[in-house]
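Worked example 4.2. Below are the chains of a multi-component assembly; read each line carefully before continuing.
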Amino acid sequence: METFLKNTVPVMEFKPFRETIYEYLRQQILSGNLRAGILFSDGEIAELFKTSRTPVREAVQKLEAEGLVERLPMKGNIVKGLSPVEIAHIYSIRKALESLAIRYATLRITPEELDTMKAILDGVDTLLALEDTDNLAEKLLQPAGEFNNVLFNACRVPKLIQMVWQHRELLDRYRTMRIVISKQLGERFVTRRRVYRAFLEKDMEKAVAAWEEHLETSFRIWLESSGLDAEKARGEYL
Amino acid sequence: METFLKNTVPVMEFKPFRETIYEYLRQQILSGNLRAGILFSDGEIAELFKTSRTPVREAVQKLEAEGLVERLPMKGNIVKGLSPVEIAHIYSIRKALESLAIRYATLRITPEELDTMKAILDGVDTLLALEDTDNLAEKLLQPAGEFNNVLFNACRVPKLIQMVWQHRELLDRYRTMRIVISKQLGERFVTRRRVYRAFLEKDMEKAVAAWEEHLETSFRIWLESSGLDAEKARGEYL
DNA sequence: AAGTGGTCTAGACCACTGT
DNA sequence: CAGTGGTCTAGACCACTTC
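Applying the procedure described above to all four chains together yields the following structure tokens:
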């Protein structure tokens, strides 16, 4: 019967244009390719994709809802920038959300997930032992991301996972953040090891404490890397 | 000069149809008029407003982003319901966000705002003294809302304020929540008085503690009002 | 006055549903 | 296989900006 093919071949999903456009713009912004302050119009993007403006509008509205783009009346769309004060606020919100995620994760993480974490941490150790300092930062970025993935997924609260990543993305796209990350290089995996150990011991408060210190350090380094302009944001982090 | 009128009369803002439609649907959902599980199609709403489907689509997409509506492929739009487990999760997220807001507010609330709070609390006291128990719940709803408004605004973190209200709305639309509120009648203003006093003393931890207890009580009452079906959500609240 | 942005309309087209 | 939902197109229209 000819239904065989139809049923076994993976469904060729039709991806709406707005999705493609959304992902493209989002990727451009998060990669830092489209920097904060850059203006673009719906028509411009529509032309780029050889489509009409409706799907572009919808993609941009979604980005607006996520806080990555601002729609200025009669000006166009602008890649949204964050003031130092807003960055401090986002750090605080991240602390609140990620602490909660870690509390859940302490209770719910599986032995398999703990093994994965250990594997990632050991991998990093051998990498560090090589003393091959050529773009070390780049090389550590991937295991750090994988670790975080396991970590936050372990909380088993879909809504919370989504909120956590959304707020991390708001900050990660900044050039300054890459400086912060490279300055925190070693420390980042010390923290992750502490979290891992706390998970082993099922010690919620220890895990949270490690993570909060990590965020605190990250904020402090960002503050120091950002010069006097950012000083007024110091008191905005709680 | 004829620019006088043009410059002094408030600008007659053109409100996009999608805004009107969005606000209408949102209000219908939050008021409980459109209950969870109800299906509706874009075309249906377009007809209701005598417009085309495009603005309706955009309004519905916004509601989807906020989690009030789900778009089921080839079925239509459905008013999204929350499982007991999801409700527990939202309570936890609320605790994280609202605690942070209260921490900020403790530091930043102005004497004027404290006066407003006191006025609201005193108003409630005289209301309670009357012992006029006719739909007392209804009458206390408004001052409670006003108090919360002052409270959360005092944190001065726009993003946080928006997140707090968004998550409160996710729960408030449920019928069960009204039962919870009426069962908590007296206790609600006891809590608010505690928060107010903590603000006077600039005691952050006391304010947070009061609020967290309040949320905890609210969750417990909801659990008890919701029968056996909700029991599995007990361990989901952190 | 010309140009651009923002919104909406009307309708085409295809995929999927259900009888 | 008719019906409905989901998406996109092409273009109209008006408000605002800019020259």
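Take a moment to check your reading of the output against the notes. The first helix of chain A runs from residue 3 to 8. Residues 37 and 79 of chain A are 5 Å apart (CA to CA).
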